[in-house]
Specification:
about 200 residues; 8 helices; mainly alpha
Length: about 200
């Protein structure tokens, strides 16, 4: 072969061996090829016989399966296994499988740890609030307020117990105690001075 002919042949072969998938036109050409011509009459008859046997076997297997399913149902009924009972068993098994799974165990451990941390945080918060209330109760302002309330209560008790019926009503005693305590507070003193 001459070099020019060799080049033309290589170009032709390279062009015919495209790496693209078959196009619609190519598929039409392939479908026009009669594949039955490659099978002899004897082979065709043998394949048809095998096909018939397979169809018979499939029918037989379907009948056997139907018979076994019927027997299965009868046995379950005799044993008292109802669909509800099966559902419960399936649910119980699924629940057990889920609880024994690694993901469930990890999630459970994580939630337990989070719960313990949350509990500790609330405990610390409660302790902090208790301490703060203790600090407030021991503060001079609260002590002063507490003394005034005690004084008012004792005045009310004295007026009710030791006083006569005409000495004044409960409202009058409470009002006088409020006036006495308001005179002691610095803000009220400043207001009175500004009014003058």
């Amino acid at each position: 072969m001459e070099p020019r002919q060799q080049e033309d042949r290589e170009i032709f072969l390279a062009g015919s061996l495209d790496k693209e998938p078959l196009k619609e036109v190519d598929e039409d050409i392939v479908s026009e090829v009669d594949l039955n011509n490659t099978v002899t009459e004897e082979e065709r008859e043998e394949m048809e016989n095998e096909l018939t046997k397979l169809e018979e076997e499939i029918t037989t297997l379907k009948q056997v399966l139907a018979s076994k399913e019927k027997r299965h149902l009868e046995l379950k009924q005799k044993l008292g296994i109802t669909p509800l009972c099966e559902l419960r068993q399936n649910f119980s098994k699924s629940w057990y499988d889920m609880q024994t799974s690694t993901a469930y165990k990890k999630t459970s451990e994580t939630l337990s740890t989070a719960g313990q941390r949350t509990s500790a945080a609330f405990s610390n918060l409660g302790n902090a609030i208790s301490r703060k209330f203790g600090d407030i109760r021991n503060s001079p302002s609260f002590k002063s307020f507490e003394e005034k309330v005690e004084s008012t209560v004792s005045n009310i008790k004295q007026s009710k117990v030791g006083g006569t019926g005409g000495a004044g009503s409960f409202e009058e005693v409470l009002s006088s105690a409020a006036q006495a305590s308001s005179q002691d507070t610095p803000t009220n003193n400043m207001t009175k001075n500004n009014e003058c």
